[in-house]
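Notes from the 1:1 (GR / supervisor)

We went over the backlog. Supervisor wanted to see one worked example end to end before approving the batch request, so GR pasted a single chain during the call. The sequence is below; no edits were made to it. Supervisor asked that the structure be written out right there so they could see what the output format looks like.
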Amino acid sequence: MSRKTRRWLFHLFISLGLFYLKLGGLSTVVALGAGIICNKIPGLAPRQRTICQSRPDAIIVIGEGVQMAINECQFQFRHSRWNCSALGERTVFGKELRVGSKEAAFTYAIIAAGVAHAVTAACSQGTLSGCGCDVEKQGLYNHQEGWKWGGCSADILFGLDFSKVFVDSREIKQNARTLMNLHNNEVGRKVLKKGMHVECKCHGVSGSCTTKTCWTTLPKIRQLGFTLKDKYNLAVHVEPVPASRNKRPTFLKIKKPHSYRKPMDTEMVFIERSPNYCEADSRTGSAGTQGRLCNKTAQQPNSCDLMCCGRGYNTHQYSRVWQCNCKFLWCCHVKCNTCSERTEVYTCK
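Structure output shown during the call:
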């Protein structure tokens, strides 16, 4: 969550504290606080606002999960023309990409996974009410592996269910884009679930492993980002198939002639081809590439030829001076040389 959002929430809670002192009731301030917070947050769908009012403690955790996902999106696409920079500008809950492209597919998948990740982590840390560790694993013995479940296993099912209820509640229209979004949301959650792993701790005298307790932990968000980026590169183009009695789409199929194969539930899907993202366009979520750093020699997406879309680039020269080759002389003096370096930076016109 951004520093500005945190500061706003801090002042809001201070104000609520004053209301609490005047009205003299905890239930009153909770209800009042939930209403104020949820009505002030931009970008929430009606169903999400209702969930926010019933679980105001969860909305901050959800916001942190969305921001974590946006940050990871920007890292994964930092060398691409579309670098995820348009997301999160208006609200922490992101700005929808109107074109149903591969980039939109990645956005929905990473945000659904990020919300589930944040909620599950908050449950394990005890900072979210109504959940905790995975109680089903407590005390059970794994006879095949020779260890016992212990510690605090992450309750991933609670996080996944919460993400499904909150994130999917945005999709109220019955069209191809809704089917695409719901599919990619589920892809993100499946990647998170598959990334769960077991950690163990040995117990015994002098570090021996006479007994061992294990628990499940969440994968790093960076791991999720790389996995979803691979799925983005292999995303499949799909089209809607309407029901026989009406024009509303009922499912998606691979967009190929004479083919009715549905995409696998682990495949990222898109319904529209990506724009080139060369020029700024709020409709497509493109910030353009003017002023972006590029690599003059590399033959990669961040090369000046590709990044600048043929418009050319500007060259900036910088000099850097620093103390180097420092030696300690007895006693007590440090002698250093002065080193300098000239570098060139290239930005798109």
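Supervisor's comment: Residues 47 and 331 are 72 Å apart (CA to CA).
Batch request approved.
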